[in-house]
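Students often ask why we bother predicting the structure of a whole assembly rather than each chain alone. The short answer is interfaces. A chain on its own may look different once its partners are present, and contacts between molecules only exist in the joint model. In this exercise we take two input lines together and write out one structure for the complete complex. Read the inputs first and try to guess which parts will touch.
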Amino acid sequence: MEKIIELKSVTKKFDGVTALRNVSFSVNKGEVVGLIGDNGAGKSTLIKTLVGVHNPDDGSIEIHGKLVANWNALKARQAGIETVFQDKALCPQQSIVWNIFMGKELSYPFGFIRQREQIEVANKLIREIGFTSKLIDAESPVGNLSGGERQGVAIARALYNEAELIVLDEPTNNLSLNETQKVFDFIYNVKKSGRSVLFIGHNIYHVYDISDRFVILDRGEVIHMLSKEKVHTADDLMKIMRETIKGH
Amino acid sequence: MFDEDNKKSNLKKYFHKNGRALGSMGYFLLLMIVFLIGAPEVWIRPNLHQSVFVMMPTLLFMVIPLVFLVASGEIDLSFASTYGLSAYVFALIVSAGIDPILGLFAGVFTGAIVGAAVGALIVFGKLSSLVASLGVLFLIRGFLFVSTNSRSITLLEIDSHWMYPILVGKIYGFPVQVIWAVLFVVFSYFLFNRHVFGIHIHHVGDNEVSASQMGINVKEIKIKAFMFVGVGAAISGIFSTLITYTFFPTQGFGYLLLALAAVFIGGTPYWGGLGTIAGAVFGVGVIAYMEIGVVAVGMSGTWRQFFNGLIILLALLGHRLHGDRVR
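Now the answer. The structure tokens for the assembled complex follow.
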């Protein structure tokens, strides 16, 4: 199976504290990977390293089997990896359209942006993700939106950029049932289109439902990598998780 | 009916979007009305406005780049000394008999270098921009006093060069530098609102973490903003030397607080992520008219600072109506 991204023996330390220890991990084309682990297990550090926000202290990163140097967020996006961060990575005082195109603006030569085109695309996107209020359009500031709507903008950004791999860091936190369902619909659609998803979640039942493969992280190390065939129910997954934590 | 509603909401949206700029325009008009009522016969004299037109371009070159920097979430005080340093470099080159065009480029280059250095100090040295630029402000000013021995340089023959009338000449009594300032403002407007650089400035000032997670090089954007401030101050300083035929070691020091006041009266908030070029133009208008208006209405010049203070406070209270920072 074709690997989109592979981390090889990655170690990351913060002020001498090891957040990731010798982690090897990959995401294949077209699969949904569920990353689970207790608080402080290193989930966020792992995905932030994967998407170039952190640089690994040791180990290497390969994109489509090719080693990359000086991995950073810009390179990750150029390689087709889009992330919906836990904090959503939005700029609340800026308009929806500027947030959707943040860091990947449509521009003419010399860097002047195609504002009208951007607004058209953004208006279409926010209707697609289900914004119905007449008061909200592409030029409304993100700060006026509810939590669910903000999540929608962050997802719209990932959606627009047609990424090969979409990373979602606890995307259903603080969302209503309805909004949570929308996020799942989104993930199914991404998978259907042959793209990959890396999903980080607290809720094991959510993770079980949508993932093809599970990666369990504990204290900065990958403890288990299980395909769905080996885990028959969400409760099985829960049991494995419990045993991992009990081992402390 | 629907169309009318739409029109209404469009108008509302326009006011909401441009509230800060429109607010500054309001203060400017209010000030004009006050002065007009206070001293109508002085106020309609054209030479009074002409002296404002001489001062405004100098301020605009300094203030507009500051809007970029403040919107990026930083502040700079060193520009008031960069102004002097660039004018000094220009004056040295011209008085050495070298072509003033070269002096112009050298002066502007000096501004860019100082800006880059201040920016690097803040971005890589992780220093507070307020305190670090305060240090640079004194450092450069001190250097100017020492190296000139506190003496000024006069460039009496500078107006015989062909570039003089192009930069600061007069067409039917109208100062040419106003045209340069207008071009600068228009260019800056598009740079700020319709260019990737300006948009990244907004993102960096709004939420640095988000910006860097989305692949924006925060450090680079900030250093460029500091460089723009340096270049603006340099142009301003050189223009002022051209107009007065003189470089003097304290040159620009008096503009430090006035330029910053113009930024904030203009409606750019201190917290970053927002800014307005049009508002800053009115902010400069308020400051420039205040300088002469107080005397024009027959009050002693000693009142000037008092009124400057008053208008800053009133303007900030007014801009508060546009709301607090959203997070």
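Check your guess against this: The domain at 1-80+163-248 of chain A is CATH 3.40.50.300 (Rossmann fold).
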